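Quick one: examine the sequence and fold tokens given here and explain what the tokens say about the fold. Here goes:
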Amino acid sequence: MFQRRMILTLALAAPAMAIAPRLAWSGHSLPPEFRSQLERDANAPIFGNPDGDATLIEFFDYNCQFCRAMMPVVDAVLAADPGLRMVLREWPVFGEGSVFAARAALASRKQGRYADFHRALMSQKPRAERASVLRVARSMGLDTQQLQRDMGGPEIAQHIQQSNALAEAMGLVGTPTFIAGSDSRFGAISSTELAELVAASRGN
């Protein structure tokens, strides 16, 4: 069972306009069982190298404008680092549309299209709601009837519940939050800072 409460200190790593405060855990490391929950959840989608020597976790919401802005940054870091394994944590915090989008994205795994669907949802301009999510799914050739049936699967509810529990236990303040090793970043950051976060984790 993971630790229910961790003490976090919040220190600004950049001016307030950059909205990129740094979250640092006291004690300099996460408890092993907690780190395992974050990095090795078999029910979480993986990007990059599944056998990589570094793991980056992102908590995100499809209706978070900064999550959308970070998608090309994330892709650039993944492309530049063949040893990077990235864990995606669907954390829908912006209402019912976000919950629908998260459930639909997770359900798309049954059709082998999670990565494409994830990027398409992040790239769309409208707010993610039932109608816009299904429109994106249809445009990609997904079977939307199967998608909606699969959205009720227990593994999908479990993933979202786990994201909520992990975020609450760590005191996360919002999306996107990136975690690597024992450090993390919140908000829109540069590819350089994201790569540095990953590089530092290799020494943890």
About this structure: Strands lie at 8-12, 21-25, 46-48, 54-60, 84-90, 177-180, 183-186.
